[in-house]
Design a protein that fits this description.
Length: about 425
């Protein structure tokens, strides 16, 4: 079978669904190829900082998470070695909290997917090869010829890879594979039917020698928790019960009882382990992030460690920025038809805008992990408690970064009407 599409997005995670929604907002219906038989919900929760909420506002769905979850106002950081606790207030800028809203990953994915036209996501569809047919030499515009695992061939004017750290599209572009940071993380959810008793607007972290753990309330009954350690974890068992036991009896045995109690009552179905991967910043500087009408977004472009909580946030930014630029590639009648040559130029503009933002977040995330988890020496403690927490974190993160607004289909049509009236 052979079909033709205006835009094909590979990957139905946060980046892929948000990009499809951004394109829908400007009048372009995309096809999302997801290799899994259903929505991927790996990872129990995700922190949405103000920059992510601004992106969700542009996508028209921010109210669906802000009405359910509360932003964090304070964080407590405890040095496990001596019991000293430091309080960090997230503060506000222009009345908007700097603190993130921690939401269920499933809820975010379902919210994004629920806004898409039925049939947008094609499940159990694995991309196996990419070929291109040139259209215009001036801007290296081309049609992407995609082959799927079931033999289906798709001709796409635009191809966007959003399939994570092992992206086929990123590899086709020539981007180097992400590298292991030398650390790994275990995450999970704990549900207390009678309520957990913690303030929903406060988070807790515990800093040990080469380890960092913490928990964040999601609702009155649910807590998201994590533990990262200086281990690649290649020989670690991935069975949830064994991961839980490893935390209780080894990794966090000296951590406060409040944390161990939460892990003890964890929902085993939510416990997962992952190596923490990132892409070298210079790979984004010197490599091609696009070729003609093909590009990447989210972890396919800029995988980073989770120490600033910006992986999903930056993916949402990518979606809105790409949507803004792609609006310039529409035919004058605005019926979702893309001018291929203009799409190539739009993608170049998107890459130019996102490259250095992504590089900064990769470097900031790695620095954050190094400072917070690197040990209890006096120099490291000074860098962490005085320099990073009080001065650098907000500057590195830029939590109020605004990725812009999307023009809706109706506003685009009104603009065309005005142009025609003038003509």
């Amino acid at each position: 079978m052979e079909i033709s599409e205006e835009v094909v997005i590979v990957g139905g995670g946060i980046a892929g669904l948000a990009t499809a929604l951004a394109l829908k907002k400007i009048g372009i219906e995309a096809l999302v190829l997801e290799r899994s038989p259903e929505l991927r919900i790996a990872g129990a929760a995700i922190a949405l900082f103000p920059n992510a909420l601004l992106a969700l506002q542009a996508l028209g769905v921010a109210h669906k998470v802000t009405s359910i979850y509360s932003p964090l106002e304070k964080g407590y950081f405890t040095n496990v070695a001596n019991g000293a606790t430091q309080e960090l207030s997230f503060g506000k800028i222009n009345g908007i909290s700097n603190g993130p809203i921690t939401v269920h990953r499933r809820a975010l994915l379902e919210t994004l997917a629920g806004e898409l036209t039925p049939g947008t996501i094609r499940f159990s569809s694995k991309l196996t090869s990419i070929q291109t047919v040139p259209i215009d030499d001036e801007v290296s515009s081309s049609t992407a010829i995609l082959t799927l695992n079931d033999g289906t061939i798709i001709k796409a004017k635009v191809l966007i890879g959003c399939e994570g750290v092992h992206s086929v599209v990123a590899r086709w572009l020539g981007l180097s594979a992400p590298v292991n940071s030398g650390r790994s993380a275990i995450r999970g959810l704990t549900i207390f039917p009678g309520g957990h008793g913690y303030n929903k607007q406060e988070s807790y972290q515990f800093l040990g020698e080469g380890k960092r753990a913490g928990f964040v309330p999601l609702t009155d009954k649910e807590l998201y928790w994590f533990l990262t350690d200086d281990s690649s974890g290649e020989d670690r068992a991935t069975d949830p019960k064994l991961l839980q036991k490893d935390i209780m009896e080894n990794l966090a045995k000296d951590f406060p009882p409040m944390y161990l109690e939460i892990v003890k009552h964890a929902d085993l179905a939510t416990i997962s382990w992952a190596q923490l991967m990132f892409r070298y910043p210079w790979d984004l500087i010197f490599s091609h992030l696009c070729k003609g009408n093909i590009t990447v977004a989210g972890d396919a472009m800029h995988p980073m460690t989770p120490d600033l909580g910006q992986g999903g946030c930056s993916a949402l930014e990518d979606a809105v920025v790409l949507g803004r630029h792609m609006a310039k590639s529409l035919l004058p009648n605005r019926h979702g038809q893309i001018v291929a040559v203009e799409a190539a130029r739009a993608i170049q503009g998107y890459v130019k805008e996102r490259r250095w933002r992504a590089i900064g977040l990769i470097m900031g995330s790695y620095l954050s992990g190094w400072v917070q988890q690197g040990g209890s020496g006096s120099l490291r403690k000074f860098l962490r408690d005085i320099i990073f927490y009080k001065f650098l974190s907000s500057r590195v993160l830029n939590v109020h970064h605004d990725c812009g607004k999307l023009s809706s289909v109706s506003s685009l049509s009104e603009s065309d009407a005005q142009i025609n009236k003038i003509d």
